[in-house]
Amino acid sequence: MYSRTFLALSLALLGGLTSCDDNSDIKPTPILSATDLLMAKSWKMTAVTEKEGSEPAKDIYTDEPACLRDNVYQFQADGVFMMDEGTTRCDQAHPQTRTGTWAQSNSGTMLTATINLSTQPGVEASMEMRGTIESVSATRLVLVDKEATAGVATETRMTFTAQ
Hints:
By secondary structure, the protein is an alpha+beta fold. It has helices spanning 2-17, 34-40, 66-69, and strands at residues 42-52, 58-59, 72-75, 80-84, 97-105, 110-116, 126-136, 140-149, 152-162.
């Protein structure tokens, strides 16, 4: 009995002597919230698929014009959403960058971003990006938007890569 107690005490003391010292330069990696991750980088859409009903998902990203595929989006503080047209602009008369708004809802799982595209007074045209945040990391964002029209469910999955 004495030898077991002595062995347990010796192991406990040995563990205490070999534990991390106070001079360690290793710092724990902070855990970032979805909001922090969204605002940390600019984002470029790199894939979009659409699935209607029980049909297989279709790639609709490659059908988009190059002037839309190179756009870069940024989620900024205070709900400011920016879109940069990238190197290929769809219309040279339109500004290189546009601003709008973004917000998260449903405990941070839903994302909605809107930008007014109209350059003429009285004409309304906007772009809305929305969906459930399926995943977000320092390098990738996936949004999934589900809608039902005339009893047919459509799921759009948008993948963005951090820039």
